[in-house]
Fold these 2 entries.
Entry 1:
Amino acid sequence: MPYLNGGAISLDGGVIKGKGKLLLGYSDPKITFLVVSVMPNTMTESNVHLVVVTRRNLDNKMKRLETIKTKIREQEKFHEELVKEFNKRKRKFDEIEQRITQPRGNELVLRAALKAKDLDP
C-alpha cells in the first residue's frame, strides 16, 4: 500500500499505517454520522409566518413592478408622439429652407444685373 503515506482508518477500526502496517481494531468503534433533513416534514408556525411574509413581500414587489412597467409604457408612448411631432416640424422646416435657398427666376436676373453693374466702372 505505497499510496497511503499518512495512513488511514477504516470504519471497522482497522488502521493502515505507512509502509503497509495493518493494525486491526480490538473493539467495535462507535462511529455515528449526523443526518440532516433538507426539507422538514412539517412546517412550524415560524416557518408558516415566514412564508406568508415572503409571499406578501413578493406580491407587493410584483405590483410595484407592474406600476413601473405601466409608467415606462406611458413614457414610451409620449416619446413616440414627441418624435412624430419633431419629424413633422423638421419636414416643414426643410421645405421652408428649400424655398428660401432656391433662387427664383427674377432673382437670377437681379443678381446678374448687379454683377454686371459691379463690373462696369
Note: The radius of gyration is 46 Å.
Entry 2:
Amino acid sequence: MASEPSHPPTGPKAFQSTRPLSAADSSWPSSGAFAAARDTESPGPSSRSFGDFSEFLRASVADEESLQMGESLQDLAAQIESIAEAWRLPHPDGSWLAPGLLALLEALREHHRMLLDLNRDWDRFIEFKAHLASLNQFRTHVTQWAGVVQQPGAQPPALSEFDVSAWRMLGAGALLLDVYEQSSKVQGTDAAAPSSAWSRLMVWIRNED
C-alpha cells in the first residue's frame, strides 16, 4: 500500500498522519469507504455523513457489552457532524470554531476514559490499540486547531483535514466493535449467524442512494 504523502510544515494544517497499527490494516477496506479517509485528504466516505454514522450505530449495536462503546461513538459522531455542518458555512475567521472544538475535545477525553475503563476482553485486541491510537491522534489535532483558531484573525484548517482525522477515529472504533462482537459470538455461532457490525457498516457506507 502506498504511503501517505508528506506535508510541509505550514502552520495549523501541518500534522503528522499515523495509521492504525499495521496488524489491523488487513481488515481495513482497501478502496472506498474509510480507505478514502485513511489514505487521502478527501472528505469522509461517499455521500454519508457523521450523523448517518451515528444513526447506523444506534440501529446496529445490540450486544449489551458493546452498547456503551456504541453509544459513545454515536455521541462523538453527532458532535462531529454538528461542527462539520457549521464549518461549511462562510465565516470571517476561525474564532467561531473554538467553542465547538473545545467541547469536542472534552467529549474525546470522556471517550478515552471510557475505553480505559472497559474490561480486559477489549484491550486484548490489536484493534483496541488501533482505535486508541487514532483517538489520541484526533485529540492532538483538535487541541492544535482549537489553539490556532483562538488567535485573532486566524483561519481554521481545511474541513477535509477534520473529516479525515475524524473518520479515521470513528472507523477504527467501528472495527473494534466488530471484532468484539465476533469474539462474543464464537460459541454457538453457525453459518447462518448475522453478519458482523463491520460487514454491515461497509455495506451501509457503499449503499449510496
Note: DSSP finds eight helices and no strands in the chain.
